[in-house]
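Researcher: Here's a chain I'd like modeled. Treat it as a single chain, no partners, no ligands.
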Amino acid sequence: MAAYMIVCVFRERMKKMKKLFSMLLALALVAALGVPAFATEGGESTVPKPVITKQPTGETVDEGGSAVFVARAENYTEIVWRIVSNDTTNTVQAADAPTYFGCSVTGLGTERLEIFNIPASMDGWRVEAMFKGPGGIEYSWGALIRVNGVTVKAPSISAQPQPLSLASGETGTLTVGAAGLEGKTQYQWYSNTANSNEGGKAIEGATDASYTPAEITGTTYYYVSVTSVYNGRSSDAVLSNPVAVTYAPPPGEELPEPEATAVPVTPAPLVPVVDIPEDEPGSTPEATQDPARSASSPEERADNSLRMLTLVGGALAVAAIIGGITALVVRARSGDDDEDDEDDYE
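Model: Modeled as a single isolated chain. Structure tokens:
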């Protein structure tokens, strides 16, 4: 009986030893893997996650310049800085930035990261902090890096859309080809009532390299703009040539006639009419008037008036000159006569 009791006690102690060993093993695994050490009945961690108290802010620098990024948090044990591409498809650890970008970095593992000799290739990338703690991991916002003077090369049109002539009920597709693309490509199709790639109306949802126009009886013109977007920057838009899409009317209908365009008429300038007095009876005209030109135009009458005024003015001027000369001659002769009278008196 005593032996049986000893065996029972030994078994109970072994069970307790197994439970204690299991708990110790679990704690060791938690410490090694960073898994929350304690959990509620619902399975949620009772250890608080890191709480970010200061987010890093973006910086705009000249090429070759430097920038400082600061982030702070509570309940964390480690901070890791990362540099993420604008489209989030590429992540570079800040410790690897000198190799990847050719810059230099200080402050790794601290709340203050500084990057020196920033190249143009870092334009559009974002700097973020990853805070690790017993309760989990939290990421800060991505602070945007902007490098002054960086531009995106505009694409070129390599294949113009071609015109379409369709019957009612048919469909056709317009397609544009673009070359020299950098980053993401954006397309926008426009419709226009004129054969021009200016002043058109943007077509909602037509943002691909191809577009199938709706059926509109008559001729409608279309063109597309192509833009490159890289690291959050957009290039200048390049426009295709306008292209005509003509839909024949349904059977039994006719194409609408184009609206007539009014042509502005410029009125002729007004010319003053001058009446030329008729020759008095008995006077001899200087020239015999051609009967075929007896009904002269206002312009001819005006020219005749100007000639007559010029002749009269010239005659008056000649008369004045002759009168002046005559007066001088008379005065000179009067002086000679006075001298002769004085000689006779003596």
